[in-house]
Amino acid sequence: MVLFTAYANSDLIGSFRKMHDLLSIATQENPVAGNAHGSYLTMRSKNGLIFGVINVVGYVPILSIRNSSRLTDMRGPIL
Q1: Which end of the chain is more exposed for a tag (fewer CB within 10 A), N or C?
Q2: Domain housing 47
């Protein structure tokens, strides 16, 4: 609801295109250190890579344990 209000009703933003334009201007005026080309609109950054590695290393084992416990509940203990 908040995003809809910001993009549809806001006098400052008003549309997705306007938000993109505002973020592009902000990139030129105040680039983000560590992001590709200093952009706010990038998926390539050092912190993004660290976040991705933490998620893969942290969540894959949890999901594996969770799914294996479901299998033992349905078929009984695996010997």
Answers
A1: C
A2: 2-75
Q: Which two tokens stand for residue 9?
A: 């009703």
Estimate to the nearest angstrom the gap between the alpha carbon of 66 and the chain centroid. 23
The label of the residue with tokens 């809809």 reads 4
Per the structure, the count of domains in the chain is: 1
The amino acid sitting at 75 is R
Whole-angstrom distance, CA of residue 27 vs CA of residue 77: 56
d(CA 49, CA 46): 5
Please classify residue 32 by burial: count the beta carbons closer than 10 Å to its beta carbon, then call 0-12 exposed, 13-18 middle and 19+ buried: middle
CB-CB contact of 72 with 78 (8 Å):
yes
Question: 10-55, pLDDT tens digit by residue?
Answer: 777 777 888 888 888 988 888 888 777 778 777 677 778 888 888 8
